Amino acid sequence: MKSAITLETVSKVYGKGRGAVAALREVSVTVPSGVFTAVMGPSGSGKSTFLHCAAGLDRPTSGAVHLGGTDLSRLSETSLTKLRRARAGFVFQSFNLISSLTVKQNITLPLRLAGRRAQPEHLAKVIKQVGLTDRVDHRPGQLSGGQQQRVAVARALISDPEVIFADEPTGALDTMTAREVLTLLRQAVDAYGQTIVMVTHDPVAAAFADTVLFLADGRLVDAMPAPTASTVADRMIRLGAWNR
Length: 244
What we know:
single chain, six-stranded mixed sheet, four-stranded antiparallel sheet
């Protein structure tokens, strides 16, 4: 299976001397293309740092990260920015929409920043895919939280990225709406071969993935194929995530 992302003995240390904190410790893993991968672990386990390094949002202290065949460590900040715009999509907990732009304008923003035009047929397909055909001229303030996150998912899909990185995408949503958004992400993988890497604290969300990677104290400690909410919750308990 083709590799989407490869981390080779990646470590990330914040600070220096006695105040140094190791967020990642020699993490090596390959994320295959066309697969939905969830990343879980106790608070402070390094989940967000893993995502940021994998997506080229942060540079590891040591080790290498490859997106497809590209070694991110060899790129300048300008080249990294261009790569993220062209080859990665992002979905965040806080939606990160621009309030003054319409749904359509928010969705096509990554293309405009990259100096590209949206192809009408592809735009219409993506908008229909996330169920927003009758909302294209609305602004974020006129939408529910679930609809806003649908806009964010469409924005991530519009450039046909190699990987979508999702950081707690359902953290601000109620249970029913969260399930709808997760179903959208699952369909993007199953119907269109999208690759998704999602950080979550929720075993129900993780159960939508094909594989769950578990981090603890900055190390990759386990991988679970075909996860269910109960098996994920049990593994998290054994990691000490909810002992308190």
